[in-house]
Amino acid sequence: MEVVKLTRDEYLESVQKLSHFENLKFLKRALDLWDNYYSWEKFPPLALVINKRHVTYLFYNISKDNKYLTINNILTPFKYRRNGYAYKLLKYLFSSVKTKKIHRCKLHSVNNSINFYNKLGLRYWGVNKEMLYYSDFKMPDDIKEIEEINYEGSTDEFNDNELEDMYGKLKDNADSFDEQQILIHKDCLKLMKTRFKFDDLKNEIKKRDLD
Question: Does the predicted model carry a pTM greater than 0.85?
Answer without folding.
Answer: yes
